[in-house]
Amino acid sequence: MAKRRPPARASAKNETLEWVKSVGIAVVLFLFIRTFLVQAYSIPSESMERTLLVGDYLMANNAIFGAHLPLVDVALPAIRDPRPGEIVVFRPTYNNPVIDVVKRVIGTPGDTIQMKDRVMYRNGKRLNEPYAIYEQAPDEALEIQDPEAPAWHRQALAPGTDARGYQPTRNSWGPLVVPAGHYFLMGDNRDHSLDSRFKGFIPRDVIRGKPMFLYYSYDKSSPDALPFVTEVRWGRIGTLIRTASGN
User: Fold this and answer.
1) Which residues are catalytic?
2) For residue 156, is it within any domain?
3) How crowded is residue 247: how many other Cβ atoms within 10 Å of its Cβ?
4) 90, CA 20 to 30 Å: which among 4, 46, 79, 120?
5) Phi, psi of 198 (to 5 degrees)
6) CB count, 10 Å around CB of 126?
7) Which parts of 10-160 are beta strand (E)?
8) pLDDT given for residue 245 in this prediction
9) Distances in Å between the alpha carbon of 131 and those of 31, 46, 138?
């Protein structure tokens, strides 16, 4: 006896259900990977040059510093905390609109940090900073860019420092003590970075991820109509983003 074939309508319905199920699984996997494992970020400003350039696109490890659950923005347990010299992605509250920012960890909780005429010190030891770049621009008071900077600087001064005559500048300030649960972050392009020198210590809970490698890069300043096609920086694609040595 010949086998009876299922109606065409039932077969089409089953195929639709299978398609919907496949798409649903793909979406769940995408959200899982994006939330708990890796996430893509871009570099919008010159504050991390030469390390990271405007037009760089990077993948960051979200799990290492504690992934954040979507919608509720609850942080899961971290594998470890950020370390000195590491580049991190964080979400500061001082930007409007709120955007993710990339900077380098200079001070961790409990550290005493200071800059003397462009030279960085942590806990009295001079840092080796081959990544830092400066222009020949004259130094200027921090309050020129942020009037509130001198006030919070004075509150964070190390014990024994005279706060009355303290006048912090872009290239000379401190010594400051990093409070518990906070970090001091700076851009590598020291004359063009809005960072902790001006905006204060960064809370641990807004640090999102650790950049791993560049997956794409192009020159956004190019006058070409389609620079993301014609001005690709092929030599930067796949570059690993490493923690600075000597810190």
Assistant:
1) 47, 103
2) yes
3) 18
4) 120
5) -100, -40
6) 11
7) 38-42, 56-61, 87-90, 101-107, 112-116, 119-122, 125-126
8) 60
9) 34, 13, 20
Specify if 62 maps to a domain.
yes
CA distances from 15 to 6, 8, 12 (A): 13, 11, 5
Domain total for the chain? Answer: 1
Residue found by looking up tokens 């997956």 in the block: 215
CATH number at residue 149: 2.10.109.10
Residue 37: C-alpha distances to residues 52, 70, 211 (Å): 22, 13, 12
Nearest partner of 76 among 198, 196, 171, 209, judged by Cα: 209
The residue among 90, 43, 59, 61 whose CA lies nearest residue 189 is: 43
Burial class (CB in 10 A: 0-12, 13-18, 19+), 38: middle
Do 139 and 169 meet the contact criterion of CB atoms below 8 Å apart?
yes
Give residue 67's domain range.
41-230
Q: How far is CA 43 from CA 89, 90, 110, 200, in A?
A: 10, 12, 30, 22
pTM of the model: 0.84
Secondary structure element (H or E) that encloses residue 186, with its range? strand 182-186
Q: Single out the residue of 216, 209, 233 nearest to residue 67, CA to CA.
A: 209
Find tokens 């699984």 and name the residue.
Answer: 25
CA atoms within 13 A on the CB side of 226: 2
If pLDDT is split at 50, 70 and 90, which confidence band does 238 have?
A: very high
Instruction: State pLDDT tens for residues 60-115.
Output: 998 899 877 766 677 778 899 999 999 999 998 887 787 899 999 999 999 999 99
